[in-house]
Automatic annotation (TrEMBL):
One of its GO terms (molecular function) is peroxiredoxin activity. InterPro entries: 4CMD/NDH-1_regulator, AhpD-like, CMD-like, Decarb_PcaC. This is 4-carboxymuconolactone decarboxylase. Residues 36-118 form the Carboxymuconolactone decarboxylase-like domain. Pfam families: CMD (PF02627). Gene3D superfamilies: AhpD-like.
Length: 126
């Protein structure tokens, strides 16, 4: 493991997804899933998210569209919150899901709208 990339990835991951969530994921890692936590932190966050080619806001938009296409509601909810942390408005997120509806399918986009609403409702209570 590249310690420098891991630490940079941890910093970015915390800033996007929230320190509490990330720290809990790392602390709750077991011998079985710890390698996955390390892989995600080092490569996803420390290698790709750390690149300067795209701003975090754009990366969040891409993630929302791809997670809609892949129909991954758990990860989508996590990244809706991250998208808000990266400066996307509800209107921005709505536009991403409408665009995804055309290219990924209406049922996938409906599920994404539903998941995002749950996140927005939770955030309104905080």
């Amino acid at each position: 493991m590249n310690k420098e990339k891991f630490e940079k990835g941890l910093e970015i991951r915390r800033s996007v997804l929230g320190a509490e969530y990330v720290d809990q994921s790392i602390q709750n890692a077991t011998d079985f899933n710890r390698p996955m936590q390390e892989l995600v932190t080092e490569y996803c966050w420390g290698e790709i998210w750390a690149r300067e080619g795209l701003p975090k806001k754009t990366r969040s938009m891409l993630n929302l569209a791809m997670l809609t296409a892949l129909n991954r509601p758990h990860e989508l909810k996590l990244h809706v919150r991250g998208a808000v942390n990266n400066g996307l408005s509800k209107d921005d997120i709505q536009e991403v899901f409408l665009q995804a509806a055309i290219y990924c399918g209406v049922p996938a986009a409906i599920d994404s709208f539903r998941s995002a609403k749950e996140v927005f409702d939770e955030m309104d209570k905080e």
